[in-house]
Specification:
Elements lengths: L2 E5 L6 H14 L4 E6 L4 H10 L4 E3 L6 H11 L5 E9 L12 H8 L3 E6 L6 H12 L5 E9 L2 H11 L6 E6 L8 E2 L2 E2 L8 H15 L2 H8 L25 E5 L4 E3 L2 H9 L3 E5 L12 E4 L1 E2 L5 H6 L1 H12 L4 E4 L1 H6 E5 L5 E3 L4 E20 L11 E12 L8 E5 L6 E4 L1 E3 L2 E4 L2 E2 L6 H18 L1
Parallel strand pairs: 1-4, 1-5, 2-3, 2-4, 5-6, 6-7, 10-12, 10-13, 13-15, 15-23, 16-18
Antiparallel strand pairs: 8-9, 11-14, 16-17, 18-19, 18-20, 19-24, 20-21, 22-23
Helix pairs in contact: 1-2, 1-7
Length: 458
């Protein structure tokens, strides 16, 4: 059936519960497919590390309801178990309604909810809280509860007594001493590539999962089913997969750049690109390369080694100035700037293609963006409306002479602004896009890379 792991609020413990379930199942060598509600990149990294399968983001704002359904039902085929990790609190959505919330996805996919509760400051009041969550939207179905941060046996007895009249099974109990802490910093959890003791951490999650859950009830709930919701069919590109003549697209992937949706990378391949993994931190720029994809990440944390790899920076700049198509998002935009000024106000030389400086600040820019493509845009047709997401603490100095988008916040009453940079064949923007519902973007990008490859061969 698959279940949705939801929290009654942010920080209730849904990531701990999700990773514990995934690790316990993986330890038994089951094949598990995970999903994540919302635009997040880092939680899916942990899912992927445990399951060895790409976690899929389910976000109806960045894509569509139809794409969410298609993605879910496509990727739960041929697996033993499947689960969805929610986002924020159960009913917390993109705006004043619950669109793109965990509840929205649970309704859309007709999945039961496993509600995670932070019990650290609750006793009998937990019953009122659970009753409210279970009756607030009668369209939702609840599989059971997970009690997190339970202080003692007596505390657990009080909680169980209060909850008993509600008739919801308690499928997991995590004590306060069971809490496993994953380090975080200015944009959330520290990614998997930066955690040297990650295997030991995953072992602890697996132990927690084995000990703390009622698997007799959980396992049947986690088995995939294909009769839960209508199946929405979307056109999927069927271009040839990469061949020796395919354009070679470098994917910046290391500790500094690792924010990519699995669907985006797969779409590049479906449109015929051959992906070449490359580390701007430690490696020379590979050759031959006909296109570059610079995703988001944490270049501000690794500004010194990025700057120190001068040969790679110069090679990227030369290739871009020679016309190489380049798609850069957020961290990628910062890398293409003249300099990156870190949190300690230290400037570091970057590629220097964009005539601007990226500077770190304390203020967080966060939220969905409605982006209308301007005629200057390379890979998005003019006047196309697409939805993206911003999540950064940097700003770029000055206004682009050739912006890509007119953007607006999720609130239709919010103000408009111009955003993005077009220089040479570079598409550089703070706005992260999911290409699932916009396959023309990777199609245009790969076509541009192919034209560049043919030009180089002429």
């Amino acid at each position: 059936m698959a279940v949705v792991i939801a929290g009654e609020r942010s920080g209730a413990g849904k990531t701990t519960v999700t990773l514990s379930l995934l690790a316990a199942l993986q330890r038994q060598q089951f094949t598990v497919q995970s999903f994540k509600v919302g635009p997040d990149y880092i939680d899916p990294m942990f899912h992927h590390y445990i399951t060895r399968r790409a976690c899929r983001n389910l976000d109806p704002v960045l894509t569509s309801e139809a794409y969410v359904c298609q993605c879910f039902y496509t990727h739960q085929h041929n697996v033993d178990y499947a689960l969805v990790e929610g986002v924020m609190g159960l009913f917390d959505g993109a705006g004043t309604d619950d669109r793109a919330s965990t509840a929205h996805i649970a309704r859309l996919l007709n999945l039961p909810i496993l509600l995670v509760l932070d019990c650290s400051r609750l006793s009998r009041s937990i019953a009122a809280l659970v009753h409210g969550y279970c009756t607030f939207d009668p369209r939702l179905q609840f599989a059971g509860l997970v009690l997190n941060r339970v202080g003692s046996d007596r505390h657990l007895a009080v909680l169980k007594s209060a909850l008993e009249p509600l008739g919801l099974p308690i499928l997991g109990v995590l004590r306060r001493h069971d809490e496993i802490t994953i380090p975080d910093r200015h944009l959330g959890l520290v990614p998997t590539a930066e955690l040297p003791d990650l295997d030991a951490l995953i072992d602890r999650f697996a132990d927690l999962g084995k000990q703390c859950f009622n698997w007799n009830i959980l396992l049947p709930l986690l088995r995939p089913s294909f009769n839960q919701a209508p199946y929405f069919s979307l056109p999927i590109p069927h271009s040839p997969l990469p061949t020796p003549q395919s354009p070679r697209v470098a994917i910046a992937y290391d500790r500094a750049f690792n924010f990519y949706y699995a669907d985006n990378l797969e779409l590049l391949q479906q449109f015929g690109a051959a992906l070449v993994w490359w580390s701007p931190l430690t490696e020379p720029f590979p050759q031959p390369i006909h296109g570059l994809y610079l995703g988001g990440g944490f270049p501000e944390v690794f500004a010194q080694p990025l700057s120190a790899n001068r040969a790679a920076r110069l090679a990227v700049k030369a290739a871009i100035e020679a016309g190489m198509p380049t798609y850069a998002e957020c961290g990628g935009l910062m890398y293409l700037s003249k300099q990156l000024v870190d949190f300690d106000n230290r400037p570091w030389d970057m590629v220097g293609v964009l005539p601007t400086i990226a500077r770190m600040e304390k203020r967080l820019t966060l939220g969905y963006r409605r982006a209308v493509s301007l005629p200057n845009n390379l890979f998005v047709a003019p006047e196309t409306v697409t939805w993206g997401h911003e999540f950064h603490r940097s700003v770029v100095l000055g206004q682009s002479d050739a912006p890509l988008y007119q953007i607006q916040g999720y609130d239709p009453q919010s103000s408009f602004s111009l955003e993005g940079w077009r220089i040479h064949q570079v598409h550089a923007s703070y706005v992260h896009l999911h290409w699932g519902a916009n396959p023309e973007i990777p199609d245009r990008f790969v076509r541009s890379c192919l034209e560049y490859a043919q030009l180089k061969q002429a």
